[in-house]
Amino acid sequence: MRKPLQRILSWALLLAALVLGGCSTRTDRPATFADVARQRSDVTILVTDSGLGGLSVAADLAARLPASGIVRSARIVFVNAEPDVGSATTT
């Protein structure tokens, strides 16, 4: 996997861990994404990027996640974060 793709995937997983981390009841150490995901029947993972790199990460995540055994069911959502200048309003 290319370095930029790995970096984007790492950020996406970190974001998911941060979002889900507050759901843990364990107090001895911070929850990891895997710890929290195993307690849920399904999870939603949001990948956001302003280009095709994020879409590639979402596709790679969708391909690798089932074999990882971390989650039973996952929705992977890709959001294009590039602003649409055609819809911007000016004052």
- Report, as a whole number of angstroms, the end-to-end distance: 44 Å
Given as residue ranges, the uncertain stretches (5+ residues, pLDDT < 50) are none
Helices and strands: which structural class? alpha+beta
Q: How many E-type strands?
A: 2
Number of helices: 3
Largest sheet: 2 strands, parallel
Silhouette: elongated
In N-to-C order, the SSE pattern is HHEHE
Q: What is the residue-mean pLDDT, rounded to a whole number? A: 75
Strand arrangement in the largest pleated sheet: 1-2
Q: Which percent range describes the beta-strand content?
A: 15-25%
- Oligomerization status of the protein chains: single chain
Rg, alpha carbons = 15 Å
Provide the helix percentage: 40-55%
SSE blueprint:
Layout: H1 3-21, H2 33-38, E1 43-49, H3 52-68, E2 74-80
Parallel strand pairs: 1-2
